[in-house]
């Protein structure tokens, strides 16, 4: 199996790994696969033994010309996703404040208004490509709003953030790498200028600016880089995961038609549908962890410096925890999944994602109850970072 094939459908590999004794080394991941729910939970609960450094190791190393484009831009500092201990806690604190239940509640009117406008823009057409018309624009607008960005800057900022991902995970020609790096550098300059204006603002950018450079006076160059890097990281993470779930939940509800009809009959199941979608297709399939000392996991001896891939996606299909794990069933008895992480690295934006999904399902059930798939050919994107359909054509 090549890497692309694994990324498009990792579940057979997960199933074999869960059934095998110990851990399974997967060449395409260049890591030991942690596939069982109990083992995933254990690794996530032992951050001292399993470091987050290198959590998102690149598939591609950009060339020197691309690096040269980024050299003069701020950023490039560690971020919350790939740090441990006090550094991780320091990066996380402003995110916890900026994404608190009160902050999420305050943004809900904007979410509802934006969602309504998006659906109204295509409701009369009778058909839509869901990912481009709704699943990407809604979370992008919401995270831009929370960051306090000028709405006119949000589409370009999101595109540049996606180009940053492309640089590290998509094979490209040298010229394309350079073009992508230029967009990323421009984004970092934009975020730097925005952060400088946001020191006293109530936005998520303001929280990051004050939290990472406390006290009076201008941030140091190192603090400046941290603010830009972590703002860029939360912008990307703040929309990709929600976009993926917006694709997954609609796809699965409509593919299993009885599930959509059940939701229309019982709209109170929207929350259950969201959790089932997250379990069934974890939006982030997993992260890497680096072993910090010789130890044993699931009967497999691991040495210091070895890499494990902690699979949320596999944990959600574990037969030992979930009945009929390969069936999508919004009426199943709830069991806590790990798709938003666990422990100190649990997703700080999980509540925001859930609320956007809830608003969306309530809107669709009310406005487009006749929604259906406009074809069976749905191709999943070749990525483990935001698992979702590449395109999702719907009609009504």
- How far apart lie the N and C ends? 38 Å
Counting DSSP H or I runs of 4 or more residues, the number of helices is 16
Residue ranges: pLDDT <50 for 5 or more in a row? none
The overall average pLDDT, rounded, is 95
Q: Percent helix among the residues?
A: 40-55%
Give the strand order, joined by hyphens, for the main sheet. 1-2-8-5-3
Notes on the protein architecture:
The protein is globular and about 60 Å long. The protein has a single domain (3-395), classed as Cytochrome p450 (Orthogonal Bundle), CATH 1.10.630. Helices cover 53% and strands 9% of the residues. It contains 16 helices and ten strands. The protein is an alpha+beta fold. This is Cytochrome P450. Residues 202-221 are annotated as: Disordered. Belongs to the cytochrome P450 family.
In terms of topology, how is this protein built?
Layout: H1 3-8, H2 11-19, E1 24-26, E2 31-34, H3 37-44, E3 50-51, H4 64-71, H5 85-98, H6 101-122, E4 127-129, H7 130-135, H8 137-147, H9 154-169, H10 174-197, H11 204-212, H12 221-255, H13 257-265, H14 270-280, E5 286-291, E6 295-297, E7 300-302, E8 307-311, H15 312-315, H16 350-367, E9 372-373, E10 393-395
Parallel strand pairs: 2-8
Antiparallel strand pairs: 1-2, 3-5, 4-10, 5-8, 6-7, 9-10
Helix pairs in contact: 4-10, 5-11, 6-8, 6-16, 8-12, 9-10, 10-12, 11-12, 12-13, 12-14, 12-16
Salient structural properties:
396 residues; Cytochrome p450; five-stranded mixed β-sheet; 16 helices; 10 strands; 9% strand; globular; cholest-4-en-3-one 26-monooxygenase activity; Cytochrome P450; iron; metal-binding
């Amino acid at each position: 199996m090549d890497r692309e094939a694994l990324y498009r459908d990792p579940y057979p590999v997960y199933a074999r790994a869960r059934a095998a004794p110990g851990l399974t080394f997967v060449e395409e991941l260049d890591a030991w696969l942690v596939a069982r729910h109990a083992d995933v939970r254990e690794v996530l609960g032992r951050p001292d033994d399993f470091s987050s450094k290198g959590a998102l190791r690149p598939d591609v190393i950009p060339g020197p010309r691309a690096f040269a484009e980024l050299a003069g831009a701020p950023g490039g500092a560690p971020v919350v996703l790939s740090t441990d201990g006090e550094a991780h806690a320091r990066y996380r604190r402003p995110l916890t404040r900026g994404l608190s239940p009160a902050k999420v509640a305050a943004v809900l009117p904007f979410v509802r208004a934006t969602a309504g406008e998006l659906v109204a823009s295509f409701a009369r057409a009778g058909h839509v490509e869901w990912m481009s018309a709704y699943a990407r624009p809604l979370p992008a607008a919401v995270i831009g709003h929370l960051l306090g960005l000028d709405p006119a800057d949000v589409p370009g900022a999101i595109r540049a953030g996606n180009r940053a991902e492309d640089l590290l995970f998509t094979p490209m020609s040298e010229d394309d790498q350079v073009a992508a790096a230029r967009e990323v550098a421009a984004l970092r300059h934009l975020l730097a200028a925005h952060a400088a204006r946001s020191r006293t603002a109530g936005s998520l950018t303001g929280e990051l600016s004050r939290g990472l450079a406390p006290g009076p006076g201008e941030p140091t160059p190192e603090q400046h880089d941290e603010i830009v890097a972590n703002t860029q990281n939360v912008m990307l993470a703040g929309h990709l995961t929600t976009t993926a779930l917006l694709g997954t939940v609609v796809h699965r509800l409509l593919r299993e038609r009885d599930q959509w009809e059940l939701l229309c009959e019982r709209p109170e199941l929207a929350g259950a549908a969201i959790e089932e979608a997250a379990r069934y297709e974890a939006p982030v399939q997993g992260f890497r962890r680096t072993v910090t000392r010789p130890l044993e996991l699931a009967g497999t001896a691991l040495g210091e410096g070895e890499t494990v891939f902690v699979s949320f996606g596999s944990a959600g299909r574990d037969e030992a925890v979930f009945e009929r794990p390969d069936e999508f069933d919004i009426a199943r008895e709830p069991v806590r999944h790990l798709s938003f992480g666990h422990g100190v690295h649990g997703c700080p934006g999980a509540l925001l994602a859930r609320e956007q999904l809830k608003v969306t399902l309530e809107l669709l059930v009310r406005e487009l109850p006749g929604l259906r798939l406009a074809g069976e050919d749905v191709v999943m994107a070749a990525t483990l970072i935001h698992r979702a359909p590449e395109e999702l054509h719907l009609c009504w």
